[in-house]
Design goal:
This protein is an alpha+beta fold and 155 residues long. The protein has one domain: Pantoate--beta-alanine Ligase, Chain: A,domain 2. Helix content is 55%, strand content 15%. It contains 4 helices and 3 strands. Strands 1-2-3 form a 3-stranded antiparallel β-sheet. Helix 2 packs antiparallel against helix 3.
Amino acid sequence: MGDINATLRAPDLRLDKACRLFRLNRSGAAVVEFAIVAPLFILLIFGMIEYGRMVMVQQVITNASREGARRAVLDGATTSTAVAAVNEFLDTAAVNSGSVEVIVSPDPPENAGYGGAVTVTVSVPFSKVSWLPSPMYLGSTTLVAKTTMRRETVK
């Protein structure tokens, strides 16, 4: 019986020795693998940050255009009240309203008759609202949100 155990252990020792020698020759392999994977991983992280910010700002300007349109369709509304509503919403959402373009059509909104459509368009270049110093993927993109509502006036 002791003889069988000795023969079973011998190949294990030889295999262990060969694996140990193979592991000793791999010094620096992790560094090389990291050097290959790290730039791709960093680009992926920056891309997720950039696209996440784009989706967030798009939602914010959509809501801002909606608020501007709500104000523009009321009786006695002016273009400046609609623009002020948009800028107020953008300021509370921490989007720099200095780089935002707001267009109210028709201008002034009271030119739209009873039940007429009033459109508020908000646009901002993504490079002005990006969290990254120079956006890699969406730098030349302009985010646009448009809301149209019917004018609420008394006949």
